[in-house]
Amino acid sequence: MNGLPAQAWLNTLLVLLQDAQLALLQLWHALGLTGDSHGQPAWPWARRIAGETLLIDLGLARQLAWSLGVLAVTLVLVVLAVAWRRHRGVLLAVAALALILAPWPSPSLLLSAAAPTSFHTSPTGFSVNAIARGAEVYAHHCAACHGEDGRGEGPLAASLSRWPPTLVSPLLARRADGDLFWHVVDGMRDARGQATMPAFGGAISDADTWAVLDYMKALAAGTGAVANGSWPTPLLLPDTPVRCGDDAPLTLAQWRGGQRVRVVAFDGDPQSLPGLDPRFQTLLLTRDGTVPRDIPQLRADCVAASSQAWGAFARIAGVSIDKLGGTELLADRDGWLRARGAPGERGWSEADMVCKSGTPARESRGLAGLDGLTALLLKMDAERVRFVKGGFVH
Ligand code: HEC
């Protein structure tokens, strides 16, 4: 899925660049040099560092890393020069020479177009409610071109000057949320300035725009799982309130507490529920988000207490809401959904991994002889998800 080099230095460089740009944005905002755009500080420049290019062009990334290194050394030399008068001339000359000789990357490669919302973060928290709201917005405003299943083959698609992209390709999902948001609000144009994708800024509220982007992520996962047996990009366990017994509902993160999660869509037959398992927390999905009365002793820990959860998970699993019963999903300790078990399937195996974007573990010795589920969980733990979106590691 991701197939990208996992060099630690590249990760560090990308994180550093992202943090530096965010810090600059905060500073500009605090100084009153930039205002707000759609409720968050507006990126005031037309360009930003192209993390996505650095990711695939290691030569460029190396050049930049060297140049930044030289810059740091130059700063030290300047400080020394200030403090050490006797050698000031030499130190400053060396600093200037280093700056000149540094392998500065070409700005046209290093920078890419930015929008005021490029660095915005989605306020939805990728919740089942946002996905449900997004589904309505999508059906009403987007499906005619992008298609019910998100593959870009809606009834209007063939009449457009440019074909809508398929959501199943990782290309789209790797864009920064803020850039996608801008493209929906402001529309898109081709090289001649002709509109290719309409602008929805006047028709859809900001909250609904963020919601429809969440829905598109769920849709991409479901359609990808059906078409290719895997998700185009990693997907987080969507947020939902969780109710355990008669206690007040908790947020998913509070309840999960860094544990793995098994999600079980309850198909109405109490006997089909798996027993409790210490290897993960079990979350029961029911159609209306309430605890079924006819289960004498609930065999799953807790229930997703939202009537929207069933539909959201059906979309992610790539099945209609009538077919979700009996489906299981596994999320790793970081909260990424990793595996999907079809209804009626007995036992787990590595073939159930739908999110394969982990960094392959160096060795898989020792997995032989374990039961399928244990092997799968160990593989999930060993191959942690490294998701790069908008060129930056999440
Ligand atoms: C009239 C047809 C049409 C409608 C309606 C439409 N789109 Fe698009 N959309 C397109 C086309 C065509 C493109 C590709 C544009 C391009 O690459 O220049 C596109 C591209 C996109 C992209 C990719 C942006 C990127 O960064 O490349 C997103 C996201 C998107 N649309 C979301 C939506 C959403 C959300 C809606 C509904 C609110 C919607 N679209 C409605 C035609 C449409």
Write up what this structure looks like.
This is Cytochrome c domain-containing protein. Keywords: Heme, Iron, Membrane, Metal-binding, Transmembrane, Transmembrane helix. It comes from Cupriavidus numazuensis. The chain crosses the membrane at residues 64-83, 90-114. Residues 129-220 form the Cytochrome c domain. With 394 residues, the protein is α+β, with helices and mostly antiparallel strands. The protein folds into 3 domains: 8-113, no CATH class; 128-228, Cytochrome c-like domain (Cytochrome Bc1 Complex, Chain D, domain 2, Orthogonal Bundle); 235-393, 3-Layer(aba) Sandwich (Glutaredoxin), CATH 3.40.30. Helices cover 39% and strands 12% of the residues. The protein contains 12 helices and 15 strands. It has helices at 8-30, 51-56, 58-83, 88-101, 107-110, 128-146, 170-173, 177-186, 206-228, 252-256, 309-317, 372-382; strands at 36-37, 40-41, 47-49, 111-113, 188-189, 195-197, 235-236, 242-243, 261-265, 281-285, 302-304, 328-331, 336-341, 388-389, 392-393. A 7-stranded mixed β-sheet has the order 7-13-12-9-10-11-8. β1 and β2 (40-41) form a beta hairpin. The protein is globular. The mean pLDDT is 87. It binds heme C. Residues 141-142, 144-146, 156, 160, 162, 164-165, 172, 175, 179-180, 183-184, 188, 190, 196-198, 200, 204, 212 line the site of heme C (HEC).
